[in-house]
Amino acid sequence: MKKYVLAYSMNPGLTVFTPEDLQALTHINLAFGLVKEGRLDIGQLTNIGLCEKFRDWNPDIKIILSVGGWGAGGFSTMAMTTEGRRTFARSCQEAVEKYGLDGIDIDWEYPCSDQAGIDSDPRDRENFTLLLSELREVLGPRSLSIAAGAGEYFIEGTEMDKVAGLVDYVQIMTYDLRNGFTREAGHHAALRAGRGDHSGLNTVDMVEMFHKAGVPMEKLVIGAAFYSRRWTGVKNENHGLLQPAESTGQGGPGYSDITEEFIRENGFTKYWDQEAGAAYLFNGSEFISYESPEAIALKCRYVKAAGLLGLMYWEQGCDTTHELLGVIGKELG
């Protein structure tokens, strides 16, 4: 079975795609539609007209509208009633038909949680399932998927066994595992647990968690990061790895900005964590976790070995060199 290769792309990133990129991809996730006054709003996707060109480059490409994202609210309130869910689902159906799209991807970050500063309610757990059921009904054979936070919190806030029966696939965001809430410098998108890391913050452990919660392996898609996470004021031991930091893990440079010149000018040294399958930079006080071509290749090989459906990445505009997608296309194409 052919593996899925899915590119999340924000509106500016849609201009970065090349014909060669489209040959490596099976799906493009347009990021993002939003929930506004209980309906779908795609006003910020001003480059959606490029989808016609993408279909010329690859007639088999699936173009999916992703709704939500970090800090995007409105889900909990909308999903609280039957009428709210139905109205939203029908607005999604209208957009899919108007723009000739292939499906909807729900990126609600996160049911039952207000950590992103959005509306939430304990009833989100059941309402998330009911929302997907309504979308499944109106979309018919079109694709329906979710982007899932990589952590126990997402399992607890949803009914993943029921969700798995409604969606075509579940995309686990196996990045930002260490993030803006984390003061320990370390890998944010590692394949496996490295030496001394007992946190469970890695791709393999997350896959096992979702599988145990009821999602078949063949419906799971893992995530790769085309951007980095950066910590400052890091203790100068063990090359900064798993050391306390003065900052939390802030958004770092995109892959195409991590050039040899950038590394040299900032005094960084490249390191490779063999056990974790992850790359990082350290200069004595600043730590940057990123995904190198070697790390991406290992994730692709894991997809095949574990019988997963595929791999997605965030986000197209973060790698204008097209090197990382080239690796994915070579490994999974």
UniProtKB/TrEMBL annotation:
It catalyses: Random endo-hydrolysis of N-acetyl-beta-D-glucosaminide (1->4)-beta-linkages in chitin and chitodextrins. Gene3D superfamilies: 3.10.50.10, Glycosidases. Keywords: Carbohydrate metabolism, Chitin degradation, Glycosidase, Hydrolase, Polysaccharide degradation. One of its GO terms (molecular function) is chitin binding. Residues 3-333 form the GH18 domain. InterPro entries: Chitinase_II/V-like_cat (IPR011583), Chitinase_insertion_sf (IPR029070), GH (IPR017853), Glyco_hydro18_cat (IPR001223), Glyco_hydro_18_chit_AS (IPR001579), Glycosyl_Hydrlase_18 (IPR050314). It is an enzyme of class 3 (hydrolase). Its EC number is 3.2.1.14. GO terms for biological process: carbohydrate metabolic process; chitin catabolic process. CDD domains: GH18_chitinase (cd06548). It comes from the Bacteria. Belongs to the glycosyl hydrolase 18 family. This is chitinase. It comes from Acutalibacter muris. The lineage of its organism: Bacteria, Bacillati, Bacillota, Clostridia, Eubacteriales.
